[in-house]
Design goal:
Blueprint lengths: L26 H22 L21 E2 L6 E2 L15 H14 L1 H10 L30 H21 L2 E4 L9 E2 L18 E2 L4 E4 L1 E2 H17 L3 H8 L8 H18 L1 H24 L6 E3 L4
Parallel strand pairs: 1-2
Antiparallel strand pairs: 3-6, 4-5, 7-8
Bound molecules: FE2/S2 (inorganic) cluster.
The site of FE2/S2 (inorganic) cluster has 9 residues, from helix 3, helix 4 and helix 6.
Length: 310
Amino acid sequence: MVPTATPLPSAHRKGLGATVRRDAWWLYPTVVGTILLSFVVYSTWAGFQAGFHWVNGTGYLSPFYSPEIYGTGPHALIPGIPSWWPVGVMAFSSAFLILAVPAGFRLTCYYYRKAYYRSIWQDPVACAVGEPRASYWGENRLPLILWNAHRYMLYLALIIGFILLYDGIHAFFFPVNADGSQFLWTNAAGTAISGDLYKQEAANVVAGTPAGWSFGIGLGTLILIINPLLIMGYTLGCHSLRHLVGGGCDRYRTPVQKARHGVWRFVTKLNDHHEFWAMASLFWVGLSDVYVRGLAHGWWTETYLLNPFK
Ligand code: FES
């Protein structure tokens, strides 16, 4: 007698969230969705602050505002507020000139696509769990076809990564007066920048130049140097970069090909843990802004591991 197989229940029933899975499949989309939405809300709020993004008496600059193309603080490439900026419409914030790059880079990243397709769009929410639609749209039409621009966002993100590395190194140096005491920037009226004078308004453009820069290490220094290391770990592990350095080459014989192979192996190592780098760098860049903002507001004071001042 031939045994008859009992059909297993379908694991994928129709309807959002329908499933026969008994494990905590909802945990990943819930946790990741909460983290991503929290970051979007916080970074948008921070961008609209238009101030409190640098710390007087230090070399600290929030990564959300770097490079500061226009601004009232000492890090601004072009001091002041440009006449074309719609001050009447929205507060001047140079952050929005910069945030588009990391936002676009992360939005089109292969890892983040998986993360927010599952956790925010819920499509697909998890393996063998019902989806909101039965058909597959793919990324072959607008707007998702634009996600193919990821490789171009990579080029811009690499530039930002090196700028943040410069900021991290700059955070080891503190402005001093001729006698080695801490130098504090003032506005044109001679009032030290603190409190509301951190806001990017015409009257708050900094004046004065430090006599020199002294080496030191504060808690902010450590936070701001770890930030670009995590961001570079994320950026250099990009799938597009992996293809860029190792693609289109099926043999490694010449010195140039061998060098490419070495770079490809390095990128591949980072790529193996792309999710870790993506989430760690996201958390840390937010932490960096919170820490700088807290110092500027006076919510807490700096702790020096190596005091740069006399
Ligand atoms: Fe994630 Fe390029 S795939 S940064």
